[in-house]
């Protein structure tokens, strides 16, 4: 793992991610069931465009996303209190291949050794209660969580759903080597195709 020490959400963080697949969108390449995603082609074109233009299409932000950004620090502090650990904030973590990466909501170390990562979701009230009642991590986050472990080398990833005034949902997810092997294979193929598409688009009209 290579850590690019920039604050998340800053121009430096966007620059580090530019044109690279990121764990928050690995599900657009490889689904939670271990199949090729139908969104793969669109994501290829988006990243090729980023590489060529030097600009990132950050898309839209809705109220839930804004609320999540506002509550994330409170959620992280709550996690530290409940689990009795210190969470280290980090920037963009690159895979050793430097082809793709992830932006954990925190990393947990013990005696200087990485022990776990953290993914925080500030879901709406209904989805938060669903997590509590079903006592399981939504499968929609499979690629992001396992992808975080793949990039960082962590063997554990904590998933947290947070809503103020309601008990937090915290679940420990263990590394799934079978899924990670498939994800890495698909990512490497994706990145190889991305290089080819970038060259084709750059040459268009010449």
Approximately how much beta-strand content do the residues carry? 15-25%
The count of helical stretches stands at 6
Mean of all residue-level pLDDT scores? 92
CATH topology: Lambda Exonuclease, Chain A
Overview of the structural elements:
There is one protein chain. The chain is of the alpha+beta class. It has six helices and seven strands; from the N terminus they run E-H-H-H-E-E-E-E-H-H-E-E-H. It has a single domain, classed as Alpha-Beta Complex (Lambda Exonuclease, Chain A), CATH 3.90.320.10. The strands form two sheets. Strands 4-5-6-7 form a four-stranded mixed β-sheet. A three-stranded antiparallel β-sheet has the order 1-2-3, sandwiched between helices. Strand 6 and strand 7 form a beta hairpin.
Topology (elements, then pairings):
Elements: E1 2-4, H1 11-17, H2 40-53, H3 63-83, E2 92-94, E3 101-102, E4 106-110, E5 113-121, H4 125-134, H5 142-152, E6 156-161, E7 169-174, H6 177-202
Parallel strand pairs: 5-6
Antiparallel strand pairs: 1-2, 2-3, 4-5, 6-7
């Amino acid at each position: 793992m290579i850590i690019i020490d920039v604050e998340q959400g800053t121009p430096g963080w966007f620059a580090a991610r530019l044109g690279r697949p990121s764990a928050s969108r690995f599900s657009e390449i490889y689904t939670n069931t271990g199949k090729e995603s139908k969104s793969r082609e669109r994501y290829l074109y988006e990243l090729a465009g980023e590489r060529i233009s030097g600009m990132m299409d950050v898309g839209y932000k809705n109220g839930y996303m804004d609320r999540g950004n506002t509550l994330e620090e409170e959620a992280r502090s709550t996690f530290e209190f409940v689990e009795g650990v210190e969470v280290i904030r980090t920037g963009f973590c690159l895979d050793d291949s430097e082809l793709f990466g992830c932006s954990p909501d925190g990393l947990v170390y013990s005696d200087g050794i990485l022990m776990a990562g953290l993914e925080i979701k500030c879901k709406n009230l209904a989805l938060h209660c669903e997590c509590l009642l079903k006592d399981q991590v939504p499968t929609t986050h499979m690629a992001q969580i396992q992808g975080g472990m793949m990039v960082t080398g962590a063997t554990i990833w904590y998933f947290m759903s947070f809503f103020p005034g309601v008990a937090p949902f915290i679940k420990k997810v263990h590394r799934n080597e079978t899924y990670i092997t498939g994800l890495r294979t698909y990512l490497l193929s994706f990145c190889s195709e991305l290089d080819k598409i970038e060259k084709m688009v750059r040459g268009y009209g010449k």
